[in-house]
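Record 1 of the preview.
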Amino acid sequence: MPLDTGKQQLIMDTINRRLSPRSLLCPISGDSNWAVESYIAALPATDTPSQISIGHFPLAVITCTTCGYTHLVNLVELGLGDVLHLKAEPA
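->
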């Protein structure tokens, strides 16, 4: 399910509120022009090297609109898991 513009804005507003302005500068372009992509990425999680995946972390994909550099932000750690109905737990 894609993120609507309201949820994208909520994610960006939360990031802006929780991080310092300096940390929001792109390390490549030096700009602070970011966009939240319209989808959520999932990073596989494992507790032992022999397992491929026991679950996932829901991630917002934040892209610099100047150069394309991309950040992945854990939505549960950002405090938006309940709002977006997401969980980071074993599958």
